Amino acid sequence: METLRIETMGLGLAIRGSTLLNDISIQVATPGVTMILGPNGAGKSLLIKCLHGLIAPTRGRCEIGLHQDGDPIRQAMVFQKPVLLRRSVLDNLQFADRHSHQKEALQQALEAVRLLEKKDQPATQLSGGEQQRLSLARALITKPKLLFLDEPTASLDPASVLIIEQLIKQASQQGVKSVFISHDIGQAKRLASDVIFLNRGQVIEHTDAATFFTNPHSREAKAYLNGEIVL
Amino acid sequence: MPDSAFLEAFELIATANADLYEILWLSVQVSITALLVSVVLGFPLGTTLAISDFRGKYLCTTVLNALMGLPPVVVGLLVYLALSRSGPFGVLGLLYTPTAMVIAQVILITPIIAALTYQVMDDLHHEYRELFLSLNIHLAKAISAYLWDARYSLITAVLAGFGRAISEVGAVMIVGGNIDHLTRVMTTAIALETSKGELAIALALGVVLLTLALLVNGLVTAVQTRARKYGYN
User: Fold this and answer.
1) Taking CB atoms and an 8 Å cutoff, what residues of chain A touch B140?
2) Is A145 on the interface with B (CB under 8 A)?
3) Does A139 reside within a domain?
4) Among B54, B82, B107, B123, which is 20 to 30 Å from A136 by CA?
């Protein structure tokens, strides 16, 4: 299986004179889920928006590519607050479907997120958990190689969290690389293959998950894992 | 006497008085034509303003919002000057024709439709922008999605434009001239018949106009209720 590589060199972002991301240099070449952890305001969402190309960094650069040369990398993103079109559940899925899947394939995608019986309902009338599951199904229907998830399970019911985590694991097994932001340390332990710990717009630590959770190097990461307030 | 005028007015409506329905038909024709032209101009203008980013955008939206309150008599006067024999478009011979009335109404309602479209599209653009970038949606598909998802709000904007057009009097009086069987519409006929003391026909037209206004408002409420019901507002 090809391993997707994400590399940033001196990536920085400043808005109106305020530095929000500072000299971020990371190399990710592991399969599975790269978890981005850090306190609020650390720059996690900005970092994945830069990686995904939604925000242009003001300094440095970011490269995403396969080890072997190939087509441009298909990417998708699940936002913290689900953004759904004002139309039915099925129509939301169809809108993103670049591969013109048959109706059965779309129905299978809805079945995977337990929303098939609600396919004709207005998407905006789903519960928060259902909306986020639909967002994930919509991202996955585009067949991404790289999936960004910005706190997709924040404030969701446990059933929705479980479905989303299962789908992420399944996608990983199928070779989809995920970059996942979470504040839930338990979830990070369940999913992460490696962890990037951010604080104040800087990478404090980037190690494999086992090392991060058992023997974090930085004082900030230790404090964060101990449930202390990191400023 | 007002009582007999009311009775006579309802009789005119009930017996489908030819003059009354001629005036009603012309009013609807002029307003619908103006509305269609305004939609063709206003939707793209409002949408373009909402989804594009350029220097002077704030000024443009401020001017557009200000144009919603254009005084109809001033618009009438300007269109009159433009279309009069000595004006730049005098050669077209459009003054005192329904076309001149359509032009005046287009100038009045296009800013309303464009400004309301802008507001709806601007909100949607802020909501959908990152999603569309993420999904790599091309511009044409994004615009059609904006138009479709804003359909209920846009219908409300169109109905608001129609309400303004059908009830407009000052501009169409100046550029149409209120000529019998040619440019006489409901509002100008009401003004004329009232000044002549012909209250029955004025009241009959007033009742029809009021009914139309109520119908349009009823439609707006129905559209908004449906949008709320389905979470599409």
Assistant:
1) none
2) no
3) no
4) B123
CB-closest option in A54, A75, A125 to B231: A125
ipTM of the complex: 0.89
Cβ separation B230–A76 shorter than 8 A: no
Domain that holds residue B21: 2-229
Q: Is residue A130 part of a domain?
A: no
Burial class of residue B87, CB neighbours in 10 A (0-12, 13-18, 19+): middle
| Residue A74 covered by a domain | yes
pLDDT of B170-219, one tens digit each? 999 999 999 999 999 999 999 999 999 989 989 999 999 999 989 988 98
- The answer to whether residues A186 and A30 touch, using CB atoms and an 8 Å cutoff, is no
CB–CB of A86 and B133 under 8 A? no
CA angle A181, A183, A188 (to 5 degrees): 70
What domain range is A78 assigned to? Answer: 4-82+145-225
Number of domains in chain A: 1
Write down the residue that tokens 């006497």 correspond to: B1
How far apart CA B150 and CA A182 sit, in angstroms, is 33
Chain B neighbors of A96, CB-CB under 8 A = 135
- Is position A95 within any domain? no
Size of interface A-B (CB pairs under 8 A): 40
B135 chain-A contacts, CB cut-off 8 A: 76, 95-96, 142
**pTM score, two decimals?**
0.85
